[in-house]
């Protein structure tokens, strides 16, 4: 096999080391010229748009950023495991890739990255690092790798007290790309336990991990297991991704049923008189206009419970016909004057702009008296409109007189307008403003 032919000295392992979690691999943070000076750091490295995607090795400051061998990496990790640390904040971190020293643009923040540690600068990777903090146990994983004779470094972390927090470092035969690295990490996780879910924030090769060490208050362990080295294709063959289940598309159910479970039909026994809300509505002495929408909702619910197919047109007809109250309904609609080209709709001589929001209310309703808001309390044909046909046999008695005068008063300027109400057959027109 290929893994038996290649020795550990021939395995090239990219690795980078950082002093802390806030180390971006740069001596001075990059800053865009002309940005907010209040957020600028004193020692910032000012760059321009032309400097983006250019190499800047003079500003690089990595603890380590190179390609080493697997044997050399084992020596580095072994030396770190013997160093005492008060906590993990005092320990350095490592990533399983080598970063380029190119200035990159952060699209999420709209500015350059502070340093070189970002996914755009991440190159190839030749080792898999798994951060285990739930589900697996340190001793069981060590025995599992020994039984399978696989090369690995397994060490506990600074927060380990029960043996469930540790790192697994596995070399690969050949370097893999940024995208392939994530697939190999998931394959190794499936090899350990198909039902185990790893930390999804630590799947890419630019992720950082704390080095092994003698952490205060932690149960520290470090072991180097010698064995065979597999390639990315071998891991994907051993633990392939599970096939995604085919989506079963069910036909959309368009059948509507009532409470009885039967299909809605026009043949169902139901009448608008069966609705209790209609009986309550007929007993109202006033305020019927405000109750009409709630009444229609109750009618629709009553028809549904009886299994009657009440369509939209029939429901709208019930709201404007005489089947409910015995008379046609008047719906209040405020009609604003039409705006002419280049002219304002406020009354002539007024210096305050009137409100453009239409006001809905009944006859005599007190409207808002805010700045420039008109008070409308009129029953003329300009402010009212009949949207339902009136049977000639039963003409309504609550229509405004034909000669009533509409007076719209603007409280801000005391400007008034008058117009004569036209006959019901004449079209509604915008009245001419009075002087």
What labels would you give this structure?
435 residues; alpha+beta; 3 domains; 4-stranded antiparallel beta sheet; disordered N terminus
What this model shows, in words?
The chain is of the alpha+beta class. The protein folds into three domains: 2-238, no CATH class; 272-320, no CATH class; 332-338 and 358-428, no CATH class. Helix content is 19%, strand content 18%. It has eight helices and 19 strands. The strands form seven sheets. It has a four-stranded antiparallel beta sheet. β7 (105-106) and β8 form a beta hairpin.
Task: Explain briefly what this protein structure is.
The protein has about 425 residues and is α+β, with helices and mostly antiparallel strands. About 20% of the residues lie in helices and about 20% in strands.
Rg, please?
40 Å
Proportion of residues in helical segments: 10-25%
Major sheet attributes: 4 strands, antiparallel
Q: Which blocks of ≥5 consecutive residues have pLDDT under 50?
A: 1-5, 328-377, 384-391, 404-431
Based on CA inertia axes, which overall geometry fits?
A: elongated
- What strand order characterises the main sheet? 4-1-6-12
The helix/strand series, from N terminus to C terminus, equals: HEEEEHEEEEEHEEHEEEHHHHEEEEE
**In what range is the share of β-strand residues?**
15-25%
Given helix and strand content, the structural type is alpha+beta
Average residue-wise pLDDT = 75
Tell me the count of domains: 3
Count of discrete alpha- or pi-helical segments spanning 4 or more residues: 8
Report how far the terminal alpha carbons are from each other: 102 Å
Total strand segments: 19
């Amino acid at each position: 096999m290929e893994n038996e032919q290649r020795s550990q000295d021939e395995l090239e392992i990219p690795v980078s080391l950082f002093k802390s979690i806030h180390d971006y691999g740069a001596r001075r943070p990059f800053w865009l010229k002309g940005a907010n000076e209040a957020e600028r750091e004193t020692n910032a490295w000012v760059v321009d748009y032309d400097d983006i995607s250019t190499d800047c090795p003079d500003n690089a400051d990595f603890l380590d950023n190179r390609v080493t061998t697997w044997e050399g990496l084992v020596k580095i990790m072994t030396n770190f495991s013997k160093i005492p640390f008060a906590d993990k904040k005092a320990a350095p971190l490592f990533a399983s890739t080598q970063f380029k020293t190119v200035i990159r643009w952060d699209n999420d923040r709209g500015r350059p990255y502070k340093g070189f540690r970002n996914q755009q600068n991440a190159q190839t990777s030749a080792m898999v690092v798994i951060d285990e903090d739930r589900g697996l146990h340190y001793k069981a994983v060590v025995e599992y790798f020994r039984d399978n004779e696989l090369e690995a470094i397994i060490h506990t972390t600074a927060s380990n007290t029960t043996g469930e927090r540790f790192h697994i470092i596995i070399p690969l035969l050949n370097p893999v790309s940024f995208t392939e690295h994530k697939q190999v990490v998931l394959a190794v996780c499936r090899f350990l336990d198909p039902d185990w879910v790893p930390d999804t924030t630590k799947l890419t090769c630019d992720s950082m991990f704390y080095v092994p060490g003698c952490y205060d208050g932690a149960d520290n362990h470090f072991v180097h297991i010698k064995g065979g080295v597999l390639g990315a294709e071998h891991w994907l063959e051993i633990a392939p991704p599970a096939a995604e289940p085919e989506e079963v598309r069910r036909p959309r159910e368009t059948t509507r049923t009532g409470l009885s479970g039967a299909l809605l039909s026009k043949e169902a026994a139901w009448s608008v008189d069966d609705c209790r809300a209609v009986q309550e509505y007929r007993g109202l002495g006033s305020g019927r206009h405000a109750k009409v929408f709630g009444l229609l909702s109750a009618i629709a619910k009553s028809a549904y419970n009886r299994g009657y197919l009440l369509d939209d047109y029939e429901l709208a007809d019930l709201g404007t016909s005489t089947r409910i109250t015995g008379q046609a309904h008047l719906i209040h609609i405020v009609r604003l004057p039409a705006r002419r080209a280049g002219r304002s709709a406020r009354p002539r001589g007024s210096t305050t702009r009137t409100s453009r929001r239409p006001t809905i209310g009944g006859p005599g309703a007190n409207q808002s008296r805010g700045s420039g808001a008109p008070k409308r309390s009129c029953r003329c044909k300009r402010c009212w409109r009949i949207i339902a046909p009136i049977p000639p046999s039963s003409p309504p008695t609550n229509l405004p007189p034909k000669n009533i005068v509409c007076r719209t008063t603007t409280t801000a300027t005391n400007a008034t307008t008058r117009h004569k109400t036209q006959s019901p057959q004449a079209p509604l027109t915008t009245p001419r403003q009075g002087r």
